[in-house]
Amino acid sequence: xxxxxxxxxxxxxxxxxxxxxxxxxxxxxxxxxxxxxxxxxxxxxxxxxxxxxxxxxxxxxxxxxxxxxxxxxxxxxxxxxxxxxxxxxxxxxxxxxxxxxxxxxxxxxxxxxxxxxxxxxxxxxxxxxxxxxxxxxxxxxxxxxxxxxxxxxxxxxxxxxxxxxxxxxxxxxxxxxxxxxxxxxxxxxxxxxxxxxxxxxxxxxxxxxxxxxxxxxxxxxxxxxxxxxxxxxxxxxxxxxxxxxxxxxxxxxxxxxxxxxxxxxxxxxxxxxxxxxxxxxxxxxxxxxxxxxxxxxxxxxxxxxxxxxxxxxxxxxxxxxxxxxxxxxxxxxxxxxxxxxxxxxxxxxxxxxxxxxxxxxxxxxxxxxxxxxxxxxxxxxxxxxxxxxxxxxxxxxxxxxxxxxxxxxxxxxxxxxxxxxxxxxxxxxxxxxxxxxxxxxxxxxxxxxxxxxxxxxxxxxxxxxxxxxxxxxxxxxxxxxxxxx
Length: 485
Ligand SMILES: *[C@@H]1O[C@H](CO)[C@@H](O)[C@H](O)[C@H]1NC(C)=O
Ligand SMILES: *[C@@H]1O[C@H](CO)[C@@H](O)[C@H](O)[C@H]1NC(C)=O
Ligand SMILES: *[C@@H]1O[C@H](CO)[C@@H](O)[C@H](O)[C@H]1NC(C)=O
Ligand SMILES: *[C@@H]1O[C@H](CO)[C@@H](O)[C@H](O)[C@H]1NC(C)=O
Ligand SMILES: *[C@@H]1O[C@H](CO)[C@@H](O)[C@H](O)[C@H]1NC(C)=O
Ligand SMILES: *[C@@H]1O[C@H](CO)[C@@H](O)[C@H](O)[C@H]1NC(C)=O
Ligand SMILES: *[C@@H]1O[C@H](CO)[C@@H](O)[C@H](O)[C@H]1NC(C)=O
Ligand SMILES: *[C@@H]1O[C@H](CO)[C@@H](O)[C@H](O)[C@H]1NC(C)=O
Ligand SMILES: *[C@@H]1O[C@H](CO)[C@@H](O)[C@H](O)[C@H]1NC(C)=O
Ligand SMILES: *[C@@H]1O[C@H](CO)[C@@H](O)[C@H](O)[C@H]1NC(C)=O
Ligand SMILES: *[C@@H]1O[C@H](CO)[C@@H](O)[C@H](O)[C@H]1NC(C)=O
Ligand SMILES: *[C@@H]1O[C@H](CO)[C@@H](O)[C@H](O)[C@H]1NC(C)=O
Prior knowledge:
Elements: H1 11-19, E1 27-29, E2 35-41, E3 45-50, E4 58-68, E5 77-81, E6 94-98, E7 103-110, E8 114-119, E9 143-152, E10 158-159, E11 165-170, E12 175-179, E13 194-199, H2 203-210, E14 225-226, E15 230-235, E16 244-249, E17 257-265, E18 272-274, E19 278-281, E20 288-292, E21 301-305, H3 313-335, H4 354-369, E22 372-374, E23 383-386, H5 394-399, E24 404-407, H6 411-420, H7 436-439, H8 464-467
Parallel strand pairs: 1-3, 10-18
Antiparallel strand pairs: 2-9, 3-8, 4-7, 4-9, 5-6, 5-8, 11-12, 12-16, 13-14, 13-17, 15-16, 17-18, 17-19, 20-21, 22-24, 23-24
Helix pairs in contact: 3-4, 4-6
The structure holds 2-acetamido-2-deoxy-beta-D-glucopyranose (12 copies).
Residues 336, 340-341 line the site of one 2-acetamido-2-deoxy-beta-D-glucopyranose.
């Protein structure tokens, strides 16, 4: 959605000023479907005219972006009219829009020529305002740089209020940020999204925050970190078949809150699309390491028990992946002995086949062998403290992470596995009160809280999405074994 904002109480000011007989105004020509970049002094107005040859009405999408400004400046206001501003203009003979968070948008329909004014005035009594083009000693400290575009069936700068950047997880020095769905499932091309990341409330963060909807405000790179500090890649992980771009952002400070923006530049044109910011916080403790893009456990993109002194994120990812894959391979040999491809009558369950079994084994295995690690200072009650008692003992022997906190796998992974695989395989889940709580977690109903681990769990933010999953109705098992490693 493009947001249009107006400041109602300001427009009588302009009416008054327009009604005042203004000496000859100089219009700067603005090209149809073009952009003008300018500087405007405080308490003044800059005028533009646009013309085109055809004698037909056009709808023009004007955007006015503030690129940089000074402390205490007034927001720019964009005015457009079919009439020259030299004449008195009755209310209704012009349209206007005030800049909000750096951006004003105005869609106008009319015949050539059209007239546009960019105003930095907030007072009808301002001397510099009346008359429009007074000689005035320039003071560069009180100038606002702007970009004015007149799109012909094109909007140069737009703010899309749909959240488009997500923080998948963080560790003490890195964060994995990911875009929303792109419109393609093609992962071979990395699009030109840009990110700008600053410690929350730092000077840069405040500077961007004031102008965050303006695309040109990012042009001077007011950021501590940007895509040059990130490994860029594409993934189809998560819901839907859509590609997403991911930014593995490195060099962060521990125990720090960051604000991140993503923007999409237009190709071969001024402007682009801006989106709302996200914030994320890095870990205090150094035992968790963020891994992603595992070949077999492809849904894993979270912090795991690590040892940054001994393992890079890449080698850690490869080790965990290999562990899970080893079990999976052996399991496929076992499963091969069941009549998976036999006729419907001999299939072990009317509901499930061997592909379901393999898939649910894989989901369960990856979550069980690759623990989701939480910051040691996180006191959430659903976390389990581990100190040399990892659920998968090789973690303690090989990785040697030291004390960490674990987000338990989600219980539904176990139920799904037990109900999807042949009963003779003996998969069973612990019962409530008899080990379930020690081995498995439950999905939290609180937004944004990941209280148990499962593939893509960060893509569901509420329990609602899980309640609709039909496996709940299949749960039939009263079980002997605990499905823990
Ligand atoms: C805003 O972004 C969302 C998510 O990418 C997209 O579905 C929507 O069409 C966009 N809206 C506009 C007006 O571009
Ligand atoms: C636009 O402004 C320029 C410069 O002031 C002027 O020469 C031109 O005639 C104007 N065009 C129209 C259509 O008013
Ligand atoms: C300009 O004229 C057109 C056609 O007469 C009218 O629809 C439009 O509202 C006018 N625009 C402004 C900004 O007054
Ligand atoms: C506006 O642009 C779209 C595609 O960008 C095109 O399909 C449409 O015909 C254009 N409309 C006009 C009036 O030019
Ligand atoms: C121009 O603005 C109008 C009104 O907001 C909007 O409906 C239209 O989609 C915009 N056109 C383009 C090409 O963005
Ligand atoms: C991506 O698309 C899938 C499938 O349509 C949808 O379930 C999911 O919510 C979308 N993700 C975002 C971040 O919009
Ligand atoms: C990607 O999209 C193409 C065409 O839309 C489709 O044929 C293909 O099956 C999709 N691939 C995946 C992995 O979803
Ligand atoms: C307007 O400019 C944009 C960006 O350069 C371009 O994509 C679009 O085709 C242009 N439209 C017209 C009608 O020239
Ligand atoms: C897989 O099976 C082989 C042969 O029984 C065994 O040596 C190996 O340890 C098993 N691998 C795993 C990861 O269990
Ligand atoms: C079942 O069929 C699939 C694909 O047709 C094949 O890959 C698999 O090996 C078969 N399994 C058995 C046990 O025959
Ligand atoms: C967690 O609990 C410990 C001990 O009770 C306390 O010192 C610490 O401040 C708590 N951490 C947070 C983040 O609340
Ligand atoms: C969420 O869980 C809490 C604690 O388990 C419970 O008190 C609350 O009613 C639940 N809210 C909803 C909407 O289910």
